[in-house]
Amino acid sequence: MDFEALYDFLFNTYAGIGCLVGAGLVISLIACVIMERRTRKTFVDRQGDEDDWSFFDDEEDEGK
Fold first, then answer.
1. Which pLDDT score, from 0 to 100, does residue 62 have?
2. Distance in angstroms (rounded) separating the CA atoms of residues 43 and 6
3. What is the dihedral of CA 14, 17, 19, 20, to 10 degrees?
4. Deepest of 31, 35, 36, 46, by most Cβ within 10 A of its Cβ?
5. What sign does the dihedral 48-50-51-53 (CA atoms) show?
6. What pLDDT digit, counting tens, does each position of 1-53 carry?
7. Distance separating alpha carbons of residues 2 and 4, to the nearest angstrom
8. DSSP alpha helices (H): ranges in the chain?
9. Euclidean distance between CA atoms 43 and 36, whole angstroms
10. pTM confidence score
């Protein structure tokens, strides 16, 4: 497959544009998860409030 055909598929067809949007969403999601985990490792000793929300829910209410 040559570059012209790939370019034509990605930018001139609905399926190609859908692939670009889907790839962008997947890449963004992976980057967000990696950054969230790095932030959690950096701020381990931070005390949470009752109003804090956690995406990963690692700290479930065990006593309740």
1. 52
2. 44
3. 180
4. 36
5. positive
6. 699 999 999 999 999 999 999 999 999 999 999 999 998 888 877 776 777 77
7. 6
8. 3-12, 14-42
9. 11
10. 0.64
